[in-house]
Amino acid sequence: MTVYFDEITLGQTASFRKTVTEADVVLFAGITGDHNPVHTDEEYARTTPFGRRIAHGLLTSSLVSTVLGNQLPGPGTIYLSQSLRFMAPVFIGDTVTASVEVTALDPLKQRVTLATRCRVGERTVLEGEALVKAPSRI
């Protein structure tokens, strides 16, 4: 459901949860061409500080896009920019909660600034800020 610019308020939030699967990592590597062995090779990944394979950081960040494009503001939203800070790894099998919170509104341009965060349990794995153009009734 679309939340139009005139319906958006400061502090408004939305979230989405997804468990990252083996298929997600394999498909993301295939789509993007990012076959870094820390994502795709268990033997190699055991030699890294993580001790096992991790999901691509941008796979995790794409869950923020899911919230923006489907919930807040929702269908018709135009993604303008996103800052990201990766804070901890996401492992295959982890359930990630991506959330957004409206922090600023620009009525003239119908732009919305949102704090973005992904968590696995209580652990923040990603945080940043998104700027979007919200859908308008006009």
TrEMBL record:
GO terms for biological process: fatty acid biosynthetic process. Keywords: Lyase. Residues 15-117 form the MaoC-like domain. CDD domains: R_hydratase (cd03449). GO terms for molecular function: (3R)-hydroxyacyl-[acyl-carrier-protein] dehydratase activity. Pfam families: MaoC_dehydratas (PF01575). The keyword Lyase applies. This is 3-hydroxybutyryl-CoA dehydratase. It comes from Chitinimonas taiwanensis DSM 18899.
